[in-house]
Write a structure and sequence with these properties.
Blueprint lengths: L1 H16 L7 E13 L12 E17 L2 E16 L11 E15 L6 E10 L2 E2 L7 E2 L3 E16 L2 E21 L4 E21 L5 E15 L18 E11 L4 E11 L8 E13 L2
Antiparallel strand pairs: 1-2, 1-14, 2-3, 3-4, 4-5, 5-8, 6-7, 8-9, 9-10, 10-11, 11-12, 12-13, 13-14
Length: 293
Amino acid sequence: MRRFICIAAMMLFASSTGVHAGPWQKSIDANLTMTQNAYSDNWSGGEVGSLSWVFNSNSLFERELNPKVNTKNTLKLFFGQTHNQNRDTKVWEKPFKSTDRIDFETVFRFTFGRIVDPYASGRIESEFIDQRERANERFVNPVLFTESFGIAKVFTKFEKREWTARFGGAVRQYLDRDIFDEANGTKQTKTTSDAGILFVSDFKTPLADTTMTIASRLSVYEAFYYSESKKLEGRYNMDYWKAPDVNWETLFTANITKYLMVNLYVQFLYDKEVDLAGRFKESLSLGITYKLM
């Protein structure tokens, strides 16, 4: 956490001292999708009413602070719920999440005109509501902090097409607040940390029509140090933390009209500590969109 604050402080300092700073390149896209079903009390067949909604927001703020310093800030906010009626009583039950994500990243890149550029970055990942324990819901939990330093390369950047990659060392801190311990009826906070190497590739391009875009991000992280490794000694999963963590996300967006869009989001996750097999997520939505900037 302290490292992340240091990175943010450096970026604020550079922003305030950049006498030749260029204009901000700003983009904020937000969309809302909704599905609703309702049935009369005498409807036969066993169907129940339901309401599902999802809000997605992607924001980008990029600026040349001076001829040798570039800052790029991205914010992704996803949240959605599904409400269902009880089959017997027809009472609306407590909603479940269908998607939930808070992801903010800031990258500080030094452009010295070399083959590659040094960079420093900080990232915060969390959820709006932690519902792993239905009787112990927590807001903005758990939280993963990632600080990274290394080299970056811009392979292409032309109009709306961009491909960049980064490679370097990384340090992560994981915070899980107020975990309920059934044995003694108390709550405790869990903190762990690890360090390793991180590779990130970001690609975005319009397709045949400028109303369609595809954005893909591949992240691979391999840890060399884990704060809880000694506690795992002798267990079957003692080396699972050493396996690379992979996160591959692809978002296809097509604007049908100015305010109507289609989103296809695909995500592949591999984390051996969570599951020995890869995890897959896909969501297809049609809804209302609005471009703020």
